Each structure stands twice: as C-alpha cells, then as structure tokens.
Q: What sequence folds into this?
C-alpha cells in the first residue's frame, strides 16, 4: 500500500498562499492523489483529486510532477477558517477501496 | 440532499456493555467504511464493505463487529471485548470499490466509556 509523508504542522497568516507538499514514493500506476480537510470533531471533507500535472477547483490547486512521487496542495489567500488538518492520500491498487490515513498536516492560520 | 448520517453524535458506554453506532447513506454508494480516530491521530480502518452481505476486517477490527444487510446501512457494534473504545468514530462511503473514488464522510460519533 502506498504510504504518504507530509509535514506534521504548518503556520501561516491570513491572506497568504499556503503550499503543503506530500511525498508518495511508492505510488502505483492506477492511483490518484486525493486531499481531504478535517475540522475538529467533524468528518474529513474532500478537497481535490488529481492524477498528474495540475488540477484546480474553486477551493485549491493540486500540482503533481511528472514522476508523481510527490504532490503539492496549494491554498490561495487562506483565512482563519482554513485552520484544519489536511490529509494527503493515495489509493491502493488492490481494488479494496481502503484509504490509509497518516497524521496529516495541521495548518494554523493566524490573524 | 444526499449524504451520510451517523447517530448518535455522542454516546456513553459503561464498562462491559455493547453499543451500536448507526451509519446510513442515501448516496447509492456501493462501499462503506468505518474508521476510528484518536486525539491527534489519523484515521484507522476498522471494517469495510464493498457489497451487501459482505464485509472485511480492516487494520483494527478486534472488539468490533458490523453487518451490511442493506446497501444504505452499515452499523458498527463496539463490543465489551474492545478494551479501549473511547474515540471518535467515522463512517464513510464511496461510489466505487477503489480508493480513487472520493470518499464522503459522516459527521462522526464520539464514544466515551464511563
């Protein structure tokens, strides 16, 4: 099963762009990269998913280099409400649907 | 609106009791999952089901049991054999049976042993 590594915590200030990088050296050919956001005492919420190059939606951008061994979640102009834990996940290729959650990155946005 | 409903939001269990956590989805999703989250930790998989009347153990299944009699429902029973059940429990579903499909999570049940 592909394992991901991401920073435990990050600090930022309101209005700044935040980039969270995740490494996944053993990603399989069929695996997509998915990012989730979790607020305290709530279930994780899907943010963005990609396979290669760049994906953008109304919330974030996801940058994936050609070798796909890492990915970067980019949050433009963060606000205090973006303070949360962000998980990078890579699907296993065993058709089990199991997601392996690491500790995630705790983002603290300061005023 | 479609989604996943977990109940109750808070649950208190006495030592030696079995308790059942409810998870219902109206998304017509095939696969459903139960995760456990401890403070400051990521999610750990307890059980998952990809089809009605079938389910598989996850990484920490001991002390838990599940059933999948209907596509919409995937209840989790925390038995007295689970020695440290106090945690935040999350149910999720996905349209397909690979992790490449986006997961939809419920709002969670916080279980406390008293």
A:
């Amino acid at each position: 099963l592909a394992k991901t590594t991401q920073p435990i915590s990050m600090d930022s200030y309101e209005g700044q762009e935040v980039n969270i990088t995740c490494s996944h050296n053993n990603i399989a050919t069929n695996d997509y990269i998915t990012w989730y956001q979790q607020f305290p005492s709530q279930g994780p919420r899907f943010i963005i998913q990609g396979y290669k190059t760049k994906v953008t939606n109304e919330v974030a951008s996801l940058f994936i280099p050609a070798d796909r061994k890492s990915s970067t979640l980019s949050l433009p102009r963060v606000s205090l409400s973006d303070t949360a834990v962000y998980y990078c996940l890579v699907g296993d290729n065993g058709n089990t649907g199991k997601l392996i959650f690491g500790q995630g990155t705790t983002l603290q946005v300061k005023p | 609106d479609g989604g996943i409903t977990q109940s109750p939001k808070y649950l208190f269990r006495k030592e030696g009791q079995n308790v059942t956590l409810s998870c219902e989805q109206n998304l017509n999703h095939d696969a459903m999952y139960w995760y456990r989250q401890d403070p400051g930790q990521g999610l750990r998989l307890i059980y998952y089901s990809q089809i009605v009347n079938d389910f598989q153990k996850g990484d920490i299944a001991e002390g838990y049991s599940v059933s999948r009699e209907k596509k919409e429902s995937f209840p989790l029973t925390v038995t007295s054999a689970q020695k440290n059940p106090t945690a935040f429990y999350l149910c999720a579903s996905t349209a397909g049976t690979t992790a490449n499909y986006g997961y939809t999570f419920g709002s969670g049940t916080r279980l406390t042993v008293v």
Summary: The mean pLDDT of chain A is 90. The beta strands of chain A are 9-13, 18-23, 33-38, 45-50, 53-56, 61-64, 70-75, 84-90, 105-110. Chain A touches chain B through 28 residues (CB under 8 Å). The first strand of chain A starts at residue 9 and ends at 13.
